[in-house]
Amino acid sequence: MSETAYNPKSNRDPKPSFRNRLMKALKKFLMTVSIAYLIIVVALVLMENQMIYPAPKFPAGNWQPDFAHEDIEFSSADGVKIHAWLMQPTEDREIPRHVLYCHGNGENLSHACGHHGLEVIHNLGGNVMVFDYRGYGKSEGSPNEAGIKLDAERALDVFCDRFQIKPSEVILIGQSLGGAVATHLASTRGCKALILQRTFSSLPDVAASKYFWIPVRWLMQNDFNSAAAIEHYTGPLFQSHGEADTIVPIRFGEKIHEKTSHELSRFVRLPGIGHNDGFPQGYWQRIDNWLTEVESASE
């Protein structure tokens, strides 16, 4: 009887097929992509407040301006100390104007007063107060939606107490994020007139347009849904938005205006103007004329 010769190669595993190697490589790739995706999502969730609120603090900005102003400090409803500047005109108007200005997310009041605040005084007249949200400028704390709304509500109270007026006598102006803050005040406390500049319908709307591959509407903690809030405001609205705005595309501003119905509400498109560009010549005069129309209608 013959014996079969031992062949050590016969016990080796068969060489993997091309298809098996391809599947193994694909699984490894998908695992790597999934882990990287989760890391990015988690990082964005953890950094949400830092991304939305860059919050330039003191001493960033010009804190020794060449215009007269008064430093005001007050505590928000939860005890956080808030800082504001009050600027008053040198000439009195026949119909006094009182303006509470809410600045954008990338500036503090020293930036805002050095540009927009002075434009308001020079072109519209009246008393103007600009306040820093918590975490901005000299204000204490860290910014978040709930806290900023508390700061704005208290700022309005302080402003009204100073001049012995009601919220219905205050003109609210908001720039970008500040527009969402001003809309919150207008929808909950009322105002004489609301002026929104480059404002978004909601933070998730803007985020979803930039991070379409992330479920931001499920993940974001900050909302500032101005498109929903504006439905509770029944007064006149002047809204302007640059057609070349790539940070907050104009469609998000239009989404707010679609919810308004006041006969004196206006939406002004600014051709060629981006999110951080200056306003065109005649812009503030147009707002002044509109406010005069609002004031005449309320007499």
TrEMBL record:
Domain of life: Bacteria
The protein's name: Alpha/beta hydrolase family protein
Top-level taxonomy: Bacteria, Pseudomonadati, Planctomycetota, Planctomycetia, Pirellulales
UniProt keyword Heme, yes or no: no
Alphabetical UniProt keywords: Hydrolase, Membrane, Transmembrane, Transmembrane helix
Spans traversing the lipid bilayer: 29-47
UniProt domain AB hydrolase-1: residue ranges: 98-226
InterPro entries assigned: AB_hydrolase_1, AB_hydrolase_fold
One Pfam family per UniProt: Abhydrolase_1
Annotated GO MF terms: hydrolase activity
